[in-house]
Structure formats: C-alpha cells, structure tokens
Amino acid sequence: MEEYKGWPCYEEIPEGWHIDKTAGSPLHGYEFITNGKSMLSGGKRALARVYKPALRVCTPAPEPAKPEEKKPEKSKPVQVVDENYTRTVNELARKKFEQKLLADIRVDLMVCEIEGWDKMEYLKELQSLINGLGSSSNFGG
Fold first, then answer.
1. Are 17 and 46 in contact (CB under 8 A)?
2. 105 vs 119: CA distance, rounded Å
3. pLDDT band at residue 139 using 50, 70 and 90 as cut-offs
4. What does DSSP say about strands 2-4 and 30-34: parallel, antiparallel, or unpaired?
5. 16 Cβ partners below 8 Å, 6+ apart?
6. pLDDT digits (tens, 9 = 90+) for 89-111
7. Which residues of 92-121 are buried (b: 16+ CB within 10 A; e: fewer)?
8. Is 42 left (phi over 0), alpha (psi -120 to 50) or beta?
9. Distance in angstroms between the alpha carbons of the first and the last residue of the chain
10. What are φ and ψ of residue 49, in 5° steps?
11. Is 45 exposed, middle or buried (0-12, 13-18, 19+ CB in 10 A)?
C-alpha cells in the first residue's frame, strides 16, 4: 500500500468502505473513500484506484454479432440535367451580380446627392466604362 500526501492508496475499495462524493480527489485515477463514519467522530479517509469501465483490462466479453438483415436498397431517382442547365445557372448568377452592382451604384448616387456632386457625371463615367468594354483593344484583338 502506498501513500499520497498522508492518505493511504488502495488498489481496491476495502470491505465496509464506500466512495466519498463530498470531496474531489487530488490524484488522477483515484477517488476518496471513507470507512462509513463521520470525519468528526473518528472516521478514516483514504484513496482508492477507480477504473472507467471502458479502460478496464478485464472487460466483459462482447456479445456475438448478430447477422445483419440485408434491406433492399432503394435506388435514388436519376437526376436529369437538361442541356440548358449550365446556361440557366450562368444566367441566374449574372442576374444576382447585376442586382448587387445596381445596389452599389444606387449607394454611390446617394453619396453624390448628399455631397452635392453631379449624378449625371457619375452615370456618364459608368456608361463610357461599359461602352469601352466592347472595343477591340479590350479583347486583345
């Protein structure tokens, strides 16, 4: 039997002793145990090693595995993708982008209004920027 800071350490709980849930253990893997008497009336306290059931060396033998019944597999419905699928997805993405772009432009127009700047000047800049995209110099040709 070993000791830890004055408390005897047992590998198993002795007969007549029980785990003391009123005090936390100072030692990992051990719990306080008492002999059933109050500490005020001469009761004794010690430490006993405790094992988690999953960590025990001797565990009960596992139950034999039952043969699994094979359930008929449900076939997933085949997803049909039409030839226009990629175009439809692309158009949706473009529309979402246009909405975000329009929202940004509206914010910029509001800033122009607040600051007293010319809104038409800003819109003409955007128009010339967009019209310039169609020029052959922007496409490398």
1. yes
2. 11
3. low
4. unpaired
5. 35, 36
6. 899 999 999 999 999 999 999 99
7. eeeeeeeeeeeeeeeeeeeebeeeeeeeee
8. left
9. 91
10. -70, 135
11. middle
Other CB atoms within 10 A of residue 122 CB: 15
Instruction: Name the one residue in this structure whose structure tokens are 């909405």.
Output: 99
* Cβ neighbours around 28 below 10 Å, total: 5
Cα gap 108→123, rounded to integer Å? 10
pLDDT tens column, 53-84: 555 555 566 677 777 777 777 777 777 667 77
Distance CA 15, CA 33 (A): 11
Chain mean position to CA 29: 30
CA 36 to chain centroid, in Å, comes to 46
Angstrom distance (rounded) from CA 107 to CA 119? 11
Length of the chain: 141
Contacts 24+ apart (CB under 8 A), 29-32: 30/4, 32/7
Amino acid at 38: S
pLDDT of residue 51: 72
